[in-house]
Design brief:
Elements (H helix, E strand, L loop, with lengths): L1 H17 L4 H21 L9 H13 L5 H16 L2
Amino acid sequence: MLSDYRSWLVSEQKLLANASHHAYSFGQANMAQRAIERLDQELAGKAALVLERATGEAALQSLDSQRPLEPPLEELRQALTQALDGGA
């Protein structure tokens, strides 16, 4: 999903760069480039995972029932909690 978004940004940037004789297009191309750079920076060293909400909630319940958790699983539990709370 994120790679599709990045690909779309790149295609928009190329399209806008071809029309760079318009000041608006030049500004939009620069904004697209900054968005690509920011996305790459945010995703560096991270793995994006898309789960159905029900699957994420079930995994979180399972992790909560097995406490105390090893540090990597605790980080996963916290990430799931944040993602599910943020998406509500």
